[in-house]
Amino acid sequence: MALMMDPGRTEPLTEEEAADLAAIDAIRESSVIELKEEGNAFLKKGKKHYTDAIDCYTRAIKTNLKDPGMNSVLYGNRAQVNLLLGNYGRAVDDADEAIKLNPSNIKAYYRGAKAALALKLWPKVAELCSEGLKLEPENKELQSMRKQAEQKQAAEAEAKRRALEIKSKAEALVSALEKRKIRVGPSRYKERTGHRRPEFDTSGILHWPVLLLYGEVMTGDLIEDFAETDMFRSHLETISLHCFSTFIIEELTLTASYMFGRNSPPLTWDASHDYKRDRIELYYRANVGPVLTKKQLLKSLMEGEVGLEGLDLDGDSEDTRDSDTREPRWVKVQEKMTLNEVLSQGNHIIPGVPVFFVVATGTSFRDKFLKEWSPP
C-alpha cells in the first residue's frame, strides 16, 4: 500500500501505489467538499452556529488537500465567519492566506479589507483594496473602503502632526519657565481662566493671561495679554477685559477702557468708590504649593487641547519637587516691577496662571485681608 511507502524512496511508483494515492486524494477531496458544504450550511443558520462553521472549515484545511484553489476558498470562508464574529485579526490573517493561495480570490480581498478597516489598519486596507481593484477596477465596495482608509490615514497623520506641534510648544514653555526660575502649581481658578496659557511672541517674550481678583466681593478681571516685560502700573490704568463673578454664572464683558484711569467710572459693585487708582494695591499669595513637576507642568500646559490621545508624555524621567513648607503670606506687588520680576520671586508659586488680589487702602477689608483673610 502507498501509505506504507518509505519517505526516502527514490524509485518511481508502481501502478498499484499510484492507484492507492489517487484513491486517498479522492477521499480527502470528498471529505473537504463535505466539510465545506457543512460549514456553509452552519453559516446560513446564523450566529449561533458560526463557531460550528469555523470548526468545519478548520478541519477541512487540516486535511492538507493539494488544491490551492479549494484551500483558498476554505480560508476565505473562515475569514468571513471570523469577520462576522468580530475576530478581525484572525479574519485578516485568513484573508491573507486565501490570497496567497489564490491571488484571484476577490472575496478574500474584500473580507480582509473590511476586517482591517474595523481594526483601523489604514495602510493594510488601502493595500488590499488596491490589489483587489486590479482584478475588478469597478468594484464600488473596494473603492469606497480604500477612499475611507486614505482619508482616515491622512486625518490621523495631521492629528499626530498637530499633537506633536502642541507638545513641542508646551515643552518650549516648560523650558522657558525653568530658565526664568518661575514655579507653577495646580490651577486654582480654571472656572475663570479656562485653559488659557502663556504664549511666546515673535521676539521670544512670554505673554501671560493674568487674573485680578477683588477678594472683598470675589469678582475678577482677566487681563488677556500681559507681557512679561510690562510693568504693573501700565496695565492698572488701561484694562478692558472680562469680568467674572462667583455669584454670576454668565461671563460679563466690561466696556470701560480705563477701569482705574483718572476719568473711569467706579466699579459697579464699589458703592463707596474705594477702589480708585491712587488707593488700590496688588498682592499675591506666597509659599502656596505644591509645585508641579516637569511632566505635570507639560500636561497642564496641554490641557484642553483636542486630539492628544495616545501622545507619549513619558519620555522624560519624573523629577521630584517638594511642596513649599513655609507659611503662606501676602506679598505686596511693587507697580514698577515687571511681571517677570514678580513671577520669578522665590516665594511665588503660580496657581496655573498668575493671580493677584486687588484691595483698597483705608478699608476695613484691607486690614482683615492682611491679618486673617484667605481665598475661599
Q: Keywords, please?
A:
376 residues; 2 domains; TPR repeat; Cns1/TTC4 wheel domain-containing protein; alpha+beta; single chain; TPR_rpt; Serine Threonine Protein Phosphatase 5, Tetratricopeptide repeat; 46% helix; two-stranded parallel ribbon
Structure report:
The longest helix has 40 residues, at 140-179. The strands form two sheets. Strands 2, 3, 4, 5, 6, 7, 8 and 10 form an eight-stranded mixed beta sheet that branches. By secondary structure, the protein is α+β, with helices and mostly antiparallel strands. The chain has two domains: 2-138, Serine Threonine Protein Phosphatase 5, Tetratricopeptide repeat; 182-289 and 324-371, no CATH class. It is built from twelve helices and ten strands. Helix 2 runs antiparallel to helix 3 (68-85) and helix 7 (140-179) packs across helix 10.
Write the layout of secondary structure elements.
Layout: H1 15-45, H2 50-61, H3 68-85, H4 88-101, H5 106-118, H6 122-135, H7 140-179, E1 183-185, H8 190-193, E2 199-200, E3 206-214, E4 219-227, H9 232-237, E5 242-245, E6 248-253, E7 280-286, H10 294-302, E8 329-332, H11 339-343, E9 349-351, E10 355-360, H12 364-371
Helix pairs in contact: 1-2, 2-3, 3-4, 3-5, 4-5, 5-6, 5-7, 6-7, 7-10
